[in-house]
């Protein structure tokens, strides 16, 4: 049977008022800042994700460490690490990750 | 009733007893063949001139290699060990099944492909790769094109394996009578050797290669007692060589002062198809002949669909289009096709990684070109 799925109507996407800036800041931690510990971290769990309205604005909450931003070095790399972080969170899979000198995750294994 | 080979074996046993029984002779599937049929199961010309002190020099050099700094970055340790066996590397077996060349002088193809199959698995750290390459393609196809019919030199076969590549056994099954033809799609089911290295006459380099990259093909002079080898460290007891043969060296043992080799006479011969041969024996490290006789390669590139397997780990970095998957029987493979293709593949692979669904990969070079995730 053919039917119409409940897709968003063209009117559902409205412009926002011009004086409203984007909410949040991709470069700032959503919550408590965790100290930089450059190098590899092994066997960690990611329990939360946070995404700003920015092409490279994803943060992950690493259990026992705190919020870490995924490195914005490239858009595709940021998306790829987001995919892995999503799987790790959803399926409770441990991750190994590398933290760069600025405290951002630049390599992620799940 | 006495069978014709029994007196022959009895005479070898007498000679071995005089030497302190370094190895055991007995009836093998080759013992039961007439002398002429045994010789057909070789595959390289006999060496041109007799030993002139080479054996002793090779044995000394092989033993001296112990503890040498390892060259290959991929090797499992930084110095050469006293003993090494690719069938048992920290509990992992990188050597593919023993084959049988039958009544055909195709041993160089079997030795060459045993080296390729093992190198492909070992360099990827993937014992489950379990490649089965087509000796028919290499010998009845490529070698025949170069004019060979009853033997071949491994130098030419490695050259063919590097320039044209060799398809998989299921695309051109081996028959010792040379019948059959490759599947026309063979360029899409292919292994290609890279970094082909001549190791002739250099036992330390042979050890370095086996330890760093995997098995090597080596030729040696065959004496008539070799057909009756059952176990132990082989040293010839009979005088004149009856021909030359090619096998794959898969390890060594300094305590027993020998190489460990994989033959192509089925599992009913020798030590389940394998044998040990003393350092320096029968020119195993290099013939005094017209062609170099010991070769290895440092990589084997694949272009083929491989069996369905699990994606055990996924890896991504902040760099553009840098996604990797660790496939159970292939090891780490880079995701091909640029940033968007990497995103698509990772989206599929994260599902497979989490659910345990097997993925069917098409590997092209060392890249994961295409992947199918079946929800079965």
UniProtKB/TrEMBL annotation, chain A:
<protein>
    <recommendedName>
        <fullName>Transposase</fullName>
    </recommendedName>
</protein>
From TrEMBL, chain B:
<feature type="region of interest" description="Disordered">
    <location>
        <begin position="20"/>
        <end position="54"/>
    </location>
</feature>
<dbReference type="InterPro" id="IPR039417">
    <property type="entry name" value="Peptidase_C1A_papain-like"/>
</dbReference>
<dbReference type="GO" id="GO:0006508">
    <property type="term" value="P:proteolysis"/>
</dbReference>
<keyword id="KW-0645">Protease</keyword>
<keyword id="KW-1015">Disulfide bond</keyword>
<feature type="domain" description="Peptidase C1A papain C-terminal">
    <location>
        <begin position="80"/>
        <end position="291"/>
    </location>
</feature>
<dbReference type="GO" id="GO:0008233">
    <property type="term" value="F:peptidase activity"/>
</dbReference>
<dbReference type="InterPro" id="IPR000668">
    <property type="entry name" value="Peptidase_C1A_C"/>
</dbReference>
<keyword id="KW-0378">Hydrolase</keyword>
<protein>
    <submittedName>
        <fullName>Papain like protease</fullName>
    </submittedName>
</protein>
<dbReference type="InterPro" id="IPR013128">
    <property type="entry name" value="Peptidase_C1A"/>
</dbReference>
<comment type="similarity">
    <text>Belongs to the peptidase C1 family.</text>
</comment>
<dbReference type="InterPro" id="IPR038765">
    <property type="entry name" value="Papain-like_cys_pep_sf"/>
</dbReference>
<dbReference type="InterPro" id="IPR025660">
    <property type="entry name" value="Pept_his_AS"/>
</dbReference>
<dbReference type="InterPro" id="IPR025661">
    <property type="entry name" value="Pept_asp_AS"/>
</dbReference>
<dbReference type="Pfam" id="PF00112">
    <property type="entry name" value="Peptidase_C1"/>
</dbReference>
């Amino acid at each position: 049977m053919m039917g119409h799925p409940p897709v968003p109507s063209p009117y559902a996407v409205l412009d926002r008022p011009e004086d409203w800036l984007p909410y949040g800041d991709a470069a700032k931690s959503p919550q408590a800042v965790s100290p930089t510990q450059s190098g590899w971290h092994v066997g960690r769990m990611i329990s939360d994700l946070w995404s700003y309205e920015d092409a490279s604005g994803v943060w992950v909450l690493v259990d026992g460490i705190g919020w870490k931003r995924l490195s914005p070095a490239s858009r595709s790399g940021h998306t790829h690490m987001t995919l892995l972080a999503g799987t790790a969170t959803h399926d409770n899979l441990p991750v190994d990750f590398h933290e760069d000198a600025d405290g951002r995750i630049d390599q992620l294994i799940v | 009733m006495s069978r014709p080979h029994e007196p022959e074996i009895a005479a070898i046993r007498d000679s071995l007893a005089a030497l302190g029984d370094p190895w055991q002779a007995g009836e093998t599937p080759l013992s039961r063949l007439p002398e002429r049929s045994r010789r057909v199961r070789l595959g390289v010309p006999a060496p041109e001139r007799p030993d002139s002190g080479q054996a002793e020099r090779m044995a000394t050099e092989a033993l001296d290699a112990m503890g040498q700094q390892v060259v290959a970055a991929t090797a499992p340790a930084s110095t050469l060990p006293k003993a090494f066996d690719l069938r048992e590397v920290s509990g992992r077996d990188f050597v593919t099944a023993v084959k049988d060349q039958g009544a055909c002088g195709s041993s160089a193809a079997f030795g060459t492909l045993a080296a390729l199959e093992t190198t492909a698995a070992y360099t990827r750290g993937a014992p489950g790769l379990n490649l089965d390459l087509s000796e028919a393609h290499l010998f009845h196809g490529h070698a025949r094109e170069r004019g060979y019919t009853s033997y071949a030199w491994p130098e030419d076969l490695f050259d063919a394996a590097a320039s044209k590549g060799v398809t998989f056994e299921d695309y051109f099954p081996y028959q010792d009578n040379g019948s059959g033809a490759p599947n026309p799609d063979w360029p899409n089911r292919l292994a290609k050797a890279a970094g082909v290295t001549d190791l002739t006459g250099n036992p330390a380099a042979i050890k370095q290669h086996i330890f760093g990259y995997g098995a090597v093909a080596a030729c040696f002079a065959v004496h008539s007692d070799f057909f009756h080898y059952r176990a132990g460290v082989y040293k010839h007891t009979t005088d004149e060589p009856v021909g030359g043969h090619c096998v794959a060296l898969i390890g060594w043992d300094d305590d027993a002062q020998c190489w460990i080799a994989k033959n192509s006479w089925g599992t009913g011969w020798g030590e389940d198809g394998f044998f040990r041969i003393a350092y320096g024996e029968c020119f195993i490290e290099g013939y005094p002949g017209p062609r170099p006789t010991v070769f290895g390669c440092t990589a084997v590139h694949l272009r083929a669909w491989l069996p369905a397997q699990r994606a055990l780990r996924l890896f991504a970095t902040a760099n553009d289009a840098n996604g990797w998957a660790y496939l159970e029987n292939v090891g780490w493979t880079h995701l091909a096709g640029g940033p968007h293709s990497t995103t698509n593949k990772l989206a599929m692979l994260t599902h497979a990684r989490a659910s345990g669904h097997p993925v069917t990969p098409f590997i092209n070079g060392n890249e994961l070109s295409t992947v199918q995730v079946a929800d079965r």
